[in-house]
Amino acid sequence: MSRPVIAILRGLTPAEAPAIAEALIGAGITRIEVPLNSPDPLDSIGILARDFGDRAMVGAGTVLTVDDVTAVARAGGRMVLSPNCAPEVIRATREAGMDSYPGVMTPTEAFTALAAGATALKLFPGELIGPAGLRAMRAVLPQGTGCWAVGGVSADNMAEWRRAGAAGFGIGSALYAPGDSAEVVAAKAARMIAAWDAIA
């Protein structure tokens, strides 16, 4: 069963990509993001899309420009995540047939992102917004808007975020840090999935 968790693999290398992806998918995490400030990110995305595209949704993070969107689409990516709200990036992502998760921190940014066609909202940085901030924003957002908390989410605070209305989570170092073995990632992922299953 897939859970609403995006694994953010910042620092992943193409050589590591298959083993790390296998560990994540085996644990039940089937959304995989390779940030574009990782080593050779498009190569990693291409490998993951080719080898795991039938079992996982693969995409890119730290996507800042329309040219980035085009490159991710060519590599086989299916989702685009950004730290900011850039309507031209959102529109290009949707036109390319990919899911768009722009970063927002305020209601103004959230409504701008939705107007541009965002699939869901990436609340970033989550540490600053906090569950209380999410709860306040959800009071004014259209019903059904997906709000994904990214930054500072852990197995220990996932339940609090969920109670505030988070639809899902983007999780980085709590799942993968550069140099982690597949075994380490599998153990981290199992803990995260157990935390989700306990509150779902």
Automatic annotation (TrEMBL):
Signal peptide: none annotated. It comes from the Bacteria. Keywords: Carbohydrate metabolism, Lyase. It is an enzyme of class 4 (lyase). Pathway: Carbohydrate acid metabolism. SUPFAM superfamilies: Aldolase. GO terms for molecular function: 2-dehydro-3-deoxy-6-phosphogalactonate aldolase activity. Its EC number is 4.1.2.21. Belongs to the KHG/KDPG aldolase family. NCBIfam families: PRK09140.1. This is 2-dehydro-3-deoxy-6-phosphogalactonate aldolase.
